[in-house]
Amino acid sequence: MIIMIAATGENNELGKNNKLVWHLPNDFKRFKSLTTNHHIIMGRKTFESFPKPLPDRVHIVISRQNDYKPEGCIVTDSIENAIALCPENEDSYVIGGGEIYNLALPFTDIIELTKVHHSFEADAFFPKISKNEWQLVESEENLKDEKHLYDYTYETYIRK
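Above: the chain's sequence. Below: its structure in token form.
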């Protein structure tokens, strides 16, 4: 299955200047728990936002640059090719950024979304989830605390 995983603000904000605009340690733990030991698909800018490749995951990076070859990654030039590189009977995760989410949406089976209950200034956005195409099947509210400045909700959507 192809699963998109993202965290967004109230207006589908993903981030600004290739960085997240919030810090939610529990969401990082959830991301790690869901994506570890799986293929992860991302754009070049998302990959370059990491200090190093994420451990215990196969990185598939989409780039238009023919000479782009980061160590330890598979590089391809389209979402279709990226998906074709993933094992058919295993979960693979699309992890961003905004352009890649838009390209991947037609191929996606499940969306794992963390909705941060605040509005942020951003330059990258997650695609709008159409209620005609997607059904919310799980929702888990989390309140702000000493480590989390905002309330947030984990939401799981499946394609209708």
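The chain has a mean pLDDT of 97.
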